[in-house]
Amino acid sequence: MKTVLRLALLALMAYAVGACSKLDDVLPPPPVNTDTTKGDTTHIDTVKLHLLTSQVWRYYEYFDDYSEAGAQLVWKVGKTNSSWNLSKNQVKFNSDGSYWEIDESGTRYDGTWSFQNDSTQVKVVNSVGTFLSEIKVLSADKYEWLGLGGETGHYGILMHEFPVIDPVLDSATFKHYLTAHTWMYEEYFLKYNTAATNLVWKIGKPNNTMPLIKTAATFNADGTTRETDERGTVIYGTWRMQNNNTELRVSNSVGTFISKVKVLTANRFEWNRLDDSYYYFGSMIPQQ
């Protein structure tokens, strides 16, 4: 594990959760929703209502067996060997309680949706059945849900706009993004070069098989690095971009490691290790 983690401290990924402190001033009074999971009446969270209904959502990642230690990544945008193809899937929730979605075959379903359990869950009803999920993340940029009931084990990550995959950046932009933060892992995958990709770390997941809570990486503008591994050990080294700014090369006391830059933005960095046949994949966000 030590070797894997040290070899992998190369990246970043992030998303920003926008503040909505003034939202209640511009939205109408919250509607009343019958909460069938509690058997009473509750008021809808107007901030969540606005966030959920403001855009069309599409799947960025999808997991099966999420409740197990060996969760499987079955779909990810830009992953060529995903076992599922959710490129056509999209869903739109409307503020009047109606919704529509398009599945992987392109079939459209219309139905209804409602918040449940004090706006911590979403219930969807369509011609296929009734589906209940727990809201894990909901921001202006991202919606993550965990399936409940018959959907137990499924976990979806949706966005309304995807980051550019396999970006080609000029050297100044690459350096600006990479050195802007100290980065921590949001997700970490093994066997990324196969359809049976394992999720071994995700922030907030209770049964991760790799404890990466202490890991962090800082890429300095002078080309030096400071990395902290899972045990809290600090490792110093150097970094440089290569291959027309599509790869990141890191050298330290452990070795030299090269990663393909899959996503690099102001708040997100995803990388795939080249020197181990694309086996390792990391997604990092600014350290919080």
Description:
The protein is mainly beta and 288 residues long. It folds into 2 domains: 2-16 and 165-286, Lipocalin, CATH 2.40.128; 23-159, Lipocalin (Beta Barrel), CATH 2.40.128.280. It contains 4 helices and 20 strands. It has helices spanning 2-8, 23-26, 46-53, 171-178; strands spanning 32-35, 40-43, 57-64, 72-76, 90-93, 98-102, 108-116, 121-125, 130-138, 142-148, 155-159, 182-190, 197-202, 216-219, 224-228, 234-242, 247-252, 256-264, 269-273, 281-286. The strands form 2 sheets. The chain has an 18-stranded antiparallel β-sheet that branches. The protein has a two-stranded antiparallel ribbon with strand order 1-2. It is elongated and about 55 Å long.
Count the E strands.
Answer: 20
Could you give a short account of the major beta sheet? 18 strands, antiparallel
Low-confidence spans: pLDDT under 50, at least 5 residues? 1-41
Rg on CA atoms, Å = 20 Å
**According to CATH, what is the class of the largest domain?**
Mainly Beta
Kindly, what is the distance between the CA atoms of the first and last residues, rounded to a whole number of angstroms? 24 Å
Helix content estimate: under 10%
CATH topology of the largest domain: Lipocalin
Order of helices and strands: HHEEHEEEEEEEEEHEEEEEEEEE
- Helical stretch tally: 4
How does the overall form come out from the CA principal axes? Answer: elongated
Q: In the CATH classification, which architecture of the largest domain applies?
A: Beta Barrel
Counting helices, strands and paired strands, the structural category is mainly beta
The number of domains is 2
